[in-house]
Design goal:
Length: 254
């Protein structure tokens, strides 16, 4: 169902991921899965590992001058990947987006570089891009954002109903839905079961839908533009783009 949401990751004072997703943004769906992922990160001792993968990745603001230039270099390749994926999709049984992409990696249809770019550039994966990164040990990923999603506070707006924030600096995971937020420390998530998480999200979503406000979280990100780095100024210069650059692969470290 089209319940729009954003998955965000903060690390070393920077926004490393600001991933828009079109579907399943309810706390009982994507929120619970997001918290369970963080819970297992803590329990499995993988927090430092994924932090290192994220440190080598970067977030491109498509509406900035520098970002527009980078996106233009990748645009032809992204469109080709989407067309290829859609052609294959018509011939395959339905599975969640990330599982279909993983199948294409396993059968050799997509390289890891291409699959990573497709995952980051589309609206389907949402928070699943994080377990994908960890499963395939992908550093150096390129993530995408824009001014609209940057300006959305954690409370969301009339279009963005859920925001899921993984803050490594504060060692917290936050679930926001229709303006109410629920925070879990890493310590708490490392000590509770998946069943407890599901139960907490059931209760949280029910109360929010009944009009109960969760006011225990005083801190709010508000606008996150200060965490997005734009090193360019002005409009991208067409002359700076070499024709050969349009087909270049971004560097990924595996």
């Amino acid at each position: 169902m089209g319940t729009r949401n954003i998955t965000r990751v903060v690390l070393d004072g920077e926004m490393k991921v600001n991933q828009y997703c079109q579907f399943d943004g309810y706390p009982t769906s994507r929120g619970a899965d997001f918290l369970k992922f963080v819970s297992h990160l803590v329990k499995d001792g993988e927090v430092d590992h994924i932090k290192e993968l994220l440190r080598s990745s970067h977030l491109v603001n498509e509406d900035s001058a520098a970002g527009a230039k980078e996106v233009k270099k990748l645009d032809k390749r992204i469109n080709k990947l989407i067309d290829q994926f859609e052609e294959i999709e018509h011939k395959s049984e339905y599975k969640p987006f990330h599982q279909r992409v993983e199948d294409l990696i396993e059968n050799g249809t997509f390289s890891l570089k291409d699959a990573s770019l497709l995952m980051a550039a589309t609206r389907d994966p949402g928070h699943q891009i994080l377990p994908f990164m960890l499963k395939y040990q992908i550093g150096g990923m390129t993530f995408f954002t824009d001014d609209y999603t940057n300006d959305i506070g954690v409370e969301g707006d009339w279009q963005i109903e859920g925001v899921y924030l993984l803050d490594f600096d504060k060692e917290e995971a936050e679930v926001w839905f229709h303006g109410s937020g629920y925070a879990f420390t890493f310590e708490t998530l490392g000590a509770i079961s998946d069943e407890i998480i599901s139960g907490e999200m059931d209760d949280f979503e029910s109360k929010v839908n009944e009009g109960v406000r969760f006011d225990d979280i005083e801190k709010k990100l508000g606008t996150i533009m200060g965490l997005i780095t734009d090193s360019g100024e002005g409009d991208p210069d067409e002359d700076d783009l070499e024709e050969d650059d349009l087909d270049e692969d971004p560097e990924l470290s595996m």
